[in-house]
Amino acid sequence: MQHALAARADNSCELCSATVDLAAYEVGPDADGTPERAAWLCATCRAQIDGDADPTHWRCLASSMWSEHAPVQVLAWRMLDRLKDEGWARDLLDMLYLDEQTLAWAQAGAARETVVHRDANGAVLAQGDTVTLIKDLPVKGAGFTAKRGTAVRGISLVADNPGQIEGRVEGQRIVILTEFVKKR
């Protein structure tokens, strides 16, 4: 597979065109060890796909998203979708066309990515946890302030936003920013 991918990519990263530290990257789900389910990527792209993404690096997708190879298209769609808060990424995502099968593949892999909610100290929050407010928070539209030290039991995680949770304070269900809570 390595030789086939290197030849297909002309020995450069299929996403950013880098020419050093290249290796095969299997594109799941259902990766099968064939070039049809893999891309030839540099270490920077591999690391950022699996970890934190630097939006500036991914501007390279403006050209690589037009690749004729489905695994490259899938990775481009996933990264653009992940960076859609950036205006340029949202614009590129709007322009990108994938056939139904390739789009389903891209979405299936993106759905597997998990959003991790962390409190102000970096502790991972889970559905149903109890947290304590670390700051007085004025609650918009409810006419009260949630006081520092208030325990919020049985929190719910906001599925698409790692910076927000929901909980009940003074009988009201409110959205709370995770930066203002600590896990008990």
Task: Give the topology, please.
Elements: H1 2-8, E1 22-26, E2 38-42, H2 43-50, H3 61-64, H4 70-82, H5 87-95, H6 100-111, E3 131-133, E4 137-139, E5 144-146, E6 151-152, E7 156-157, E8 164-169, E9 172-177, E10 181-183
Antiparallel strand pairs: 1-2, 3-6, 3-10, 4-5, 7-8, 8-9
Helix pairs in contact: 4-6
Overall description:
This protein is an alpha+beta fold. It has 2 domains: 2-111, no CATH class; 131-183, SH3 Domains (SH3 type barrels). Helices cover 29% and strands 21% of the residues. The protein has 6 helices and 10 strands. The protein has helices at residues 2-8, 43-50, 61-64, 70-82, 87-95, 100-111, and strands at residues 22-26, 38-42, 131-133, 137-139, 144-146, 151-152, 156-157, 164-169, 172-177, 181-183. Strand 7 (156-157) and strand 8 (164-169) form a beta hairpin. The longest helix is centred in the middle third of the chain and has 13 residues, at 70-82. The chain is elongated and about 65 Å long. The model has no long low-confidence stretch (mean pLDDT 91).
Entry summary:
The chain is α+β, with helices and mostly antiparallel strands. The chain has helices spanning about 1-10, 45-50, 60-65, 70-80, 85-95, 100-110, and strands at about 20-25, 40, 130-135, 135-140, 145, 150, 155, 165-170, 170-175, 180-184. It has two domains: about 1-110, no CATH class; about 130-184, SH3 type barrels.
